[in-house]
Amino acid sequence: MPPKIESDVAVLGGGILGVSTAVHLLRGGASVVLITEGSLASGATGRSLSWLNAAGKRSDEYHALRMAGIDRYRTLYAADPSREWLHFDGGVFWAAVGEAPKAEARHEHEQSHGYDSKLANPGQISALTPGIDEAAIPDVAVFNPGEGWVSLPHLVEYLMEEFNALGGTLIADAGKSRVLAREGKAWGVSTEDSSVYTADKVVVACGAATPAVVEEHGIYIADGSRLSALVITEVAGCKLKSVLNTPRAAARPNPGGSLALDHGWYEEQIIEQPDGSFAIPKEVVQELTEEASRLLDGNPQLTPASWKAGRKPIPGDGEPVFGELEKLPSCYVAFSHSGATLGLIAGELLSYEILSGQKHPMLASFRPERFSRA
């Protein structure tokens, strides 16, 4: 089939990293075609707890990038604090019974580089943030006042309004797509129905599928992606404002008064279906909601309304992968476990590199070639 659309950039992936990059490119004056396998936000973006944070231990470069990511969300929040899908009401972490030193070490590390971190015993937590059952905290908790959360499907919808206003072209439900190369250089994308979309540059932001997409061209990106699920409850009627990260459940508020829940203890119970989709047993969903109820003041009965399972994008070494492929010029990748926190800043910095032809120093540690060289 002959080429269909010629554009400056073809972006492959309709999650937050792909949509953010596409919008930032359009803002810079590029013409953009955005190609998605299914509907927008139908992959990991649609089942992310999307906790906005730079907590815990990681490299200095990764911490700085996450802090810049939070900064961009703060700018967005300041423009309209009434949005119910973006809030900054803090995050709370605690460890399992008998593991208070783990929380204390986390707090000390955060304090050492100026990350806002408060260590609290159970009786102090209600004065810091509402809606938590103090009895659920075995020893001490770490409260990070500057953290927040975002509902990524709502953010994608918001960004797509600008995408459309700026003249971007969306090709949805395109199925499995491939990056096309000629003489060692990317020049477009071919979709499942053999339609071809030519472009000067290509961005691969396909979540957990990103390593497989570029592997066709002899490029290795270590993949540590694992299975995960997100549960959305019915309206919860609780006062929780912070994101909770606890030994048996993670929880955050969600638009409309519901809660979003996830964790990792049930990963091995997620089932991959013959058609490539994923399912999670209802009894696991129920157990997670019960675990979450124990975290909340008054222990309200939570009812699961919906749930989704799939692969959570995680590079093999845990650090993000951003930038142009040396072995396939004109092809850029965006692959990260922290797609929510980095969603806005990653799109901004990748678009800078694509439009200017210069490498941004904040992405220097996250180049794809670190895997092949290792």
Automatic annotation (TrEMBL):
Q: This protein is called what? A: FAD-binding oxidoreductase
Query: In which organism is this protein found?
Result: Pseudarthrobacter humi
What PANTHER family would the database entry show? GLYCINE OXIDASE, SARCOSINE DEHYDROGENASE-RELATED
Q: Which InterPro entries match?
A: FAD-dep_OxRdtase, FAD/NAD-bd_sf
Give the record's keywords alphabetically: Oxidoreductase
Do the record's keywords include Transcription regulation?
Answer: no
Residues in domain FAD dependent oxidoreductase?
Answer: 8-352
> This protein's superkingdom?
Bacteria
